[in-house]
Amino acid sequence: MVDPNQAAAESAAKAAEAANKRRKDAAEDYKKDNDRRAELNKKQAEVMENSRPTPTQEETDLARLGLLHPDDKSATGNPEMPPVAEQQAEVAKAEQEKAKRDQATADAANAEAKSAREQSGFVKPQAPQAPQQRQK
Questions:
Q1: d(CA 136, CA 126)
Q2: Residue 37 is part of which domain span?
Q3: Mean pLDDT per 10-residue run, the chain (136 residues)?
Q4: Is there a domain that residue 63 lies in?
């Protein structure tokens, strides 16, 4: 028979190990999320730095008079943000990956808890039965 104190200690050690793993996974998820956000922010900053604003009324008037050609104003090769659909797909993919990791972590924690209960000899208490009525 397994010593209850030893089983409880092993169970506590496994629970602590699982908690540390969950913390480490959460930290990795946080870092990955921050990296993705930093990449999108970097792209947005690049677009903002290199983009040309809408022409002013003065520039439009000069272009109408032929003193400023519209193509002289625009720069070629302006960077553009990826389409919103691509950005949304990237975010959705990251959320799906996180949900899978969370589910796997939860499944592992449940399996460890079940194993610890079985090793310690814990038996789930049964719900009380309603008294049966006598037949007449």
A1: 29
A2: 4-47+82-119
A3: 74 85 89 89 85 78 79 60 83 87 85 76 66 66
A4: no
